[in-house]
Amino acid sequence: MTEFMELIERRKEKLEIDTMSPLIWAYIGDSVYELFIRMHLTNTTRLKPHKLHIESIHYVKAKSQAETLEKLMSHLNEQETEIVKRGRNAENHHLPKNATVQDYMYSTAFEALIGYLYLTKQDERLKELLELCIMD
After folding, report:
1. pTM listed for this prediction
2. What is the pLDDT of residue 1?
């Protein structure tokens, strides 16, 4: 487990992160957000693993992420809004199976924001936004 923790600590430098494809940010953001949701559900419910999985899908599917991003937009600063735009406009040749193209674009934008904040070690801001994601 220490190797894993060392990898987390050795995140890339900000300049290198800024030049990455927003799809890379989204790739990381997808994992970070799913882990956050899984931990949230594990800590706040007493569901069995299969039910945890079913419940987590409600949060992590493209439509839900697009709706979550819409809810977050008024809380984002200028730089974060720019990250969202870059994520939304990233050319992705993947066609969504269970979402509209628009929902998929905005879910990618959401994941890009989460991934960017994680990679640039903006942990307090990431935590703040993730907590907003689970508020009703």
Report:
1. 0.89
2. 61
